[in-house]
Amino acid sequence: MKAIVKAMIANLHAEPHLSAELIDEVLYGMAVHIIDEPDSDWVLVRTAYQYEGYCQKMHLLIDESQVNMWANEAAYVVHQSFADVLHEPRIQSSKITTLVKGSLIRYIPNDDIDKEWAAVQLATGEIGYTRRMWIRHKINDHQLSEKQLREGVVQTALSYIKTPYRWGGKSPLGIDCSGLCSMAYMLNGVYIYRDARIEDGFPIKEISIEQIQRGDLLYFPGHIAMYIGDNKYVHSSLGGNEVSINSLDKQHPDYREDLATTITAVGSLFAQ
Protein backbone atom coordinates (compact mmCIF):
# COMPACT_ATOMS: atom_id res chain seq x y z
CA MET A 1 0.00 0.00 0.00
CA LYS A 2 1.26 3.46 -0.92
CA ALA A 3 0.71 6.75 0.87
CA ILE A 4 1.56 10.45 0.52
CA VAL A 5 2.97 12.59 3.30
CA LYS A 6 0.41 15.30 4.10
CA ALA A 7 2.26 16.89 7.03
CA MET A 8 4.94 19.55 6.54
CA ILE A 9 7.42 16.94 7.81
CA ALA A 10 6.69 13.33 8.76
CA ASN A 11 9.19 11.94 11.25
CA LEU A 12 10.50 8.41 10.82
CA HIS A 13 11.38 6.70 14.09
CA ALA A 14 13.38 3.57 14.82
CA GLU A 15 10.44 2.18 16.81
CA PRO A 16 6.69 2.93 16.75
CA HIS A 17 6.59 5.50 19.54
CA LEU A 18 7.39 9.21 19.79
CA SER A 19 10.30 8.80 22.21
CA ALA A 20 12.14 6.45 19.80
CA GLU A 21 15.19 7.67 17.88
CA LEU A 22 14.49 9.96 14.93
CA ILE A 23 16.14 8.33 11.91
CA ASP A 24 14.76 10.34 9.00
CA GLU A 25 12.23 12.92 7.88
CA VAL A 26 9.95 12.59 4.87
CA LEU A 27 8.76 15.87 3.42
CA TYR A 28 5.32 17.00 2.24
CA GLY A 29 4.11 15.35 -0.95
CA MET A 30 6.66 12.54 -0.93
CA ALA A 31 5.32 9.03 -1.46
CA VAL A 32 6.07 6.10 0.84
CA HIS A 33 5.26 2.40 0.74
CA ILE A 34 3.54 0.96 3.82
CA ILE A 35 5.09 -2.39 4.69
CA ASP A 36 3.59 -3.05 8.15
CA GLU A 37 0.99 -1.68 10.55
CA PRO A 38 1.94 -2.53 14.15
CA ASP A 39 -1.07 -0.70 15.63
CA SER A 40 -3.82 1.76 14.76
CA ASP A 41 -1.57 4.83 15.12
CA TRP A 42 1.71 3.78 13.47
CA VAL A 43 2.88 2.27 10.19
CA LEU A 44 6.27 1.01 9.05
CA VAL A 45 7.12 2.69 5.76
CA ARG A 46 9.79 2.49 3.07
CA THR A 47 10.81 5.64 1.22
CA ALA A 48 11.65 6.02 -2.47
CA TYR A 49 15.33 5.84 -1.46
CA GLN A 50 14.77 2.55 0.41
CA TYR A 51 14.97 3.90 3.97
CA GLU A 52 12.60 2.34 6.49
CA GLY A 53 11.11 3.70 9.69
CA TYR A 54 7.94 4.06 11.71
CA CYS A 55 5.63 6.99 10.94
CA GLN A 56 2.47 8.23 12.61
CA LYS A 57 -0.45 7.29 10.40
CA MET A 58 -2.09 10.70 10.87
CA HIS A 59 0.71 12.28 8.80
CA LEU A 60 -0.15 10.19 5.74
CA LEU A 61 -2.82 10.21 3.05
CA ILE A 62 -3.39 6.52 2.44
CA ASP A 63 -5.03 6.05 -0.95
CA GLU A 64 -3.12 4.04 -3.55
CA SER A 65 -5.03 5.38 -6.57
CA GLN A 66 -4.48 8.95 -5.43
CA VAL A 67 -0.79 8.24 -4.79
CA ASN A 68 -0.32 6.99 -8.34
CA MET A 69 -2.05 10.07 -9.74
CA TRP A 70 0.00 12.32 -7.45
CA ALA A 71 3.24 10.69 -8.56
CA ASN A 72 2.48 11.67 -12.15
CA GLU A 73 1.13 15.16 -11.50
CA ALA A 74 3.11 16.53 -8.53
CA ALA A 75 5.97 17.61 -10.75
CA TYR A 76 7.04 20.73 -8.87
CA VAL A 77 9.33 21.05 -5.87
CA VAL A 78 9.78 23.83 -3.33
CA HIS A 79 13.34 25.20 -3.58
CA GLN A 80 12.91 28.11 -1.16
CA SER A 81 13.76 27.29 2.47
CA PHE A 82 10.11 27.85 3.42
CA ALA A 83 7.09 28.58 1.24
CA ASP A 84 3.65 29.57 2.53
CA VAL A 85 0.68 28.30 0.52
CA LEU A 86 -2.11 30.87 0.81
CA HIS A 87 -5.85 30.77 0.19
CA GLU A 88 -5.64 33.65 -2.28
CA PRO A 89 -2.85 35.06 -4.51
CA ARG A 90 -2.14 38.06 -2.33
CA ILE A 91 0.27 38.52 0.52
CA GLN A 92 -2.48 39.51 2.97
CA SER A 93 -4.28 36.19 2.49
CA SER A 94 -4.55 33.57 5.22
CA LYS A 95 -2.27 30.57 5.14
CA ILE A 96 -3.25 27.01 4.28
CA THR A 97 0.12 25.50 5.14
CA THR A 98 3.87 26.06 5.06
CA LEU A 99 6.13 23.81 3.01
CA VAL A 100 9.88 23.34 3.38
CA LYS A 101 12.54 22.96 0.70
CA GLY A 102 12.13 19.63 -1.08
CA SER A 103 8.35 19.37 -0.68
CA LEU A 104 6.36 18.24 -3.72
CA ILE A 105 3.27 19.96 -5.10
CA ARG A 106 1.18 20.07 -8.26
CA TYR A 107 1.41 23.23 -10.35
CA ILE A 108 -1.82 24.43 -11.96
CA PRO A 109 -1.45 26.73 -15.00
CA ASN A 110 -3.54 29.85 -14.43
CA ASP A 111 -3.26 32.93 -16.65
CA ASP A 112 -5.79 34.86 -14.57
CA ILE A 113 -3.47 35.57 -11.66
CA ASP A 114 -0.51 37.88 -11.28
CA LYS A 115 2.71 36.42 -12.71
CA GLU A 116 4.28 36.74 -9.24
CA TRP A 117 2.01 33.95 -8.02
CA ALA A 118 1.52 30.28 -8.90
CA ALA A 119 -1.61 28.24 -8.34
CA VAL A 120 -0.80 24.89 -6.73
CA GLN A 121 -2.69 21.84 -5.58
CA LEU A 122 -1.86 20.07 -2.34
CA ALA A 123 -1.95 16.32 -1.82
CA THR A 124 -5.29 16.70 -0.02
CA GLY A 125 -6.80 18.33 -3.11
CA GLU A 126 -6.85 21.90 -1.78
CA ILE A 127 -5.95 24.66 -4.20
CA GLY A 128 -3.69 27.43 -2.95
CA TYR A 129 -1.19 30.02 -4.08
CA THR A 130 2.50 30.53 -3.51
CA ARG A 131 5.22 32.74 -4.95
CA ARG A 132 6.14 31.46 -8.40
CA MET A 133 9.85 32.01 -7.75
CA TRP A 134 9.73 29.59 -4.79
CA ILE A 135 8.88 26.51 -6.86
CA ARG A 136 10.45 24.83 -9.88
CA HIS A 137 9.92 21.75 -11.99
CA LYS A 138 11.54 18.64 -10.57
CA ILE A 139 14.90 17.76 -12.09
CA ASN A 140 15.31 14.26 -13.51
CA ASP A 141 18.67 12.52 -13.41
CA HIS A 142 18.98 12.41 -17.21
CA GLN A 143 18.45 16.16 -17.65
CA LEU A 144 21.86 17.36 -16.46
CA SER A 145 25.37 16.90 -17.78
CA GLU A 146 28.09 15.81 -15.37
CA LYS A 147 29.29 19.40 -15.06
CA GLN A 148 25.78 20.71 -14.40
CA LEU A 149 25.02 17.99 -11.86
CA ARG A 150 28.27 18.51 -9.95
CA GLU A 151 27.63 22.23 -9.77
CA GLY A 152 23.97 21.70 -8.92
CA VAL A 153 24.60 19.44 -5.92
CA VAL A 154 27.31 21.77 -4.57
CA GLN A 155 25.11 24.86 -4.85
CA THR A 156 22.18 23.03 -3.30
CA ALA A 157 24.30 21.84 -0.36
CA LEU A 158 25.63 25.38 0.13
CA SER A 159 22.06 26.70 0.25
CA TYR A 160 21.71 24.98 3.65
CA ILE A 161 24.65 26.89 5.21
CA LYS A 162 23.93 27.81 8.85
CA THR A 163 21.02 25.36 9.06
CA PRO A 164 21.05 23.89 12.57
CA TYR A 165 22.23 20.33 13.05
CA ARG A 166 19.38 17.91 13.76
CA TRP A 167 19.88 14.16 14.13
CA GLY A 168 17.74 12.55 11.42
CA GLY A 169 16.80 15.96 10.01
CA LYS A 170 16.42 16.74 6.33
CA SER A 171 15.00 20.28 6.10
CA PRO A 172 15.98 23.93 6.68
CA LEU A 173 14.56 23.51 10.19
CA GLY A 174 17.43 21.14 10.96
CA ILE A 175 19.53 18.68 8.99
CA ASP A 176 22.14 16.02 9.68
CA CYS A 177 25.20 15.07 7.63
CA SER A 178 23.64 12.41 5.43
CA GLY A 179 20.41 14.40 5.20
CA LEU A 180 22.36 17.30 3.71
CA CYS A 181 24.17 15.19 1.10
CA SER A 182 21.12 13.11 0.18
CA MET A 183 18.90 16.21 -0.19
CA ALA A 184 21.51 17.95 -2.34
CA TYR A 185 21.43 15.00 -4.72
CA MET A 186 17.67 14.41 -4.48
CA LEU A 187 16.91 18.01 -5.44
CA ASN A 188 19.06 17.43 -8.53
CA GLY A 189 17.24 14.27 -9.54
CA VAL A 190 19.38 11.54 -7.96
CA TYR A 191 18.62 9.26 -5.01
CA ILE A 192 21.71 8.28 -3.02
CA TYR A 193 21.91 6.23 0.16
CA ARG A 194 20.71 8.24 3.14
CA ASP A 195 23.52 7.31 5.53
CA ALA A 196 27.22 7.89 6.12
CA ARG A 197 28.50 4.98 4.07
CA ILE A 198 28.65 3.71 0.50
CA GLU A 199 25.93 1.11 0.00
CA ASP A 200 25.56 -1.46 -2.79
CA GLY A 201 22.56 -0.82 -5.01
CA PHE A 202 22.94 2.96 -4.90
CA PRO A 203 24.73 5.09 -7.51
CA ILE A 204 27.68 6.36 -5.41
CA LYS A 205 30.82 4.25 -6.01
CA GLU A 206 34.19 4.45 -4.32
CA ILE A 207 37.05 6.34 -5.97
CA SER A 208 40.55 7.29 -4.84
CA ILE A 209 41.00 10.62 -3.10
CA GLU A 210 43.28 11.68 -5.97
CA GLN A 211 40.23 11.55 -8.28
CA ILE A 212 37.99 13.74 -6.12
CA GLN A 213 36.04 16.57 -7.77
CA ARG A 214 33.32 19.05 -6.79
CA GLY A 215 30.17 17.26 -5.70
CA ASP A 216 31.91 14.02 -4.69
CA LEU A 217 31.45 12.71 -1.16
CA LEU A 218 33.89 12.27 1.71
CA TYR A 219 33.22 9.54 4.26
CA PHE A 220 34.46 9.48 7.84
CA PRO A 221 33.54 7.20 10.77
CA GLY A 222 29.84 7.96 11.23
CA HIS A 223 29.98 11.11 9.12
CA ILE A 224 29.69 12.30 5.51
CA ALA A 225 30.55 15.57 3.74
CA MET A 226 30.47 17.00 0.21
CA TYR A 227 33.67 18.15 -1.45
CA ILE A 228 33.31 21.62 -2.99
CA GLY A 229 36.81 22.12 -4.42
CA ASP A 230 40.02 23.81 -3.24
CA ASN A 231 40.42 21.26 -0.43
CA LYS A 232 37.13 22.43 1.13
CA TYR A 233 34.01 20.51 2.02
CA VAL A 234 30.53 21.39 3.26
CA HIS A 235 28.86 19.28 5.93
CA SER A 236 26.34 19.31 8.75
CA SER A 237 28.50 18.78 11.76
CA LEU A 238 27.33 17.63 15.16
CA GLY A 239 30.48 19.17 16.57
CA GLY A 240 29.86 22.45 14.77
CA ASN A 241 26.11 22.51 15.48
CA GLU A 242 25.22 23.64 11.93
CA VAL A 243 25.97 23.31 8.23
CA SER A 244 29.40 24.81 7.64
CA ILE A 245 32.51 24.66 5.48
CA ASN A 246 35.83 23.17 6.59
CA SER A 247 39.15 22.44 4.92
CA LEU A 248 41.47 19.49 4.39
CA ASP A 249 44.42 21.90 4.22
CA LYS A 250 46.46 22.01 7.45
CA GLN A 251 47.33 25.65 6.77
CA HIS A 252 43.72 26.76 6.45
CA PRO A 253 42.02 28.36 9.49
CA ASP A 254 39.00 26.07 9.00
CA TYR A 255 41.10 22.88 9.03
CA ARG A 256 39.66 20.10 11.18
CA GLU A 257 42.27 17.50 12.04
CA ASP A 258 39.71 15.11 13.54
CA LEU A 259 38.10 14.78 10.10
CA ALA A 260 41.01 15.34 7.71
CA THR A 261 42.96 12.48 9.29
CA THR A 262 40.09 9.96 9.47
CA ILE A 263 38.74 9.77 5.90
CA THR A 264 37.54 6.21 5.30
CA ALA A 265 36.37 6.53 1.67
CA VAL A 266 35.65 8.91 -1.17
CA GLY A 267 32.56 8.35 -3.30
CA SER A 268 31.40 9.63 -6.67
CA LEU A 269 28.35 9.36 -8.86
CA PHE A 270 30.72 9.44 -11.82
CA ALA A 271 33.12 6.64 -10.87
CA GLN A 272 34.66 5.01 -13.91
UniProtKB/TrEMBL annotation:
Question: Record's family?
Answer: Belongs to the peptidase C40 family.
Q: Which UniProt keywords apply?
A: Hydrolase, Protease, Thiol protease
Q: Which domain of life is it from?
A: Bacteria
Q: What is the protein's name according to its record?
A: Peptidase
**Which residues belong to any copy of the NlpC/P60 domain?**
147-267
An example Pfam family from this entry, by short name, is SH3_3
Q: Which InterPro entries does the UniProt record give?
A: NLP_P60_dom, Papain-like_cys_pep_sf, Peptidase_C40, SH3-like_bac-type
Provide the GO MF annotations for this entry.
cysteine-type peptidase activity
The UniProt record lists the keyword Protease: yes
Q: Which GO terms describe its biological process?
A: proteolysis
Which SUPFAM superfamilies does the entry mention?
A: Cysteine proteinases
Organism, by scientific name, is: Lysinibacillus odysseyi 34hs-1 = NBRC 100172
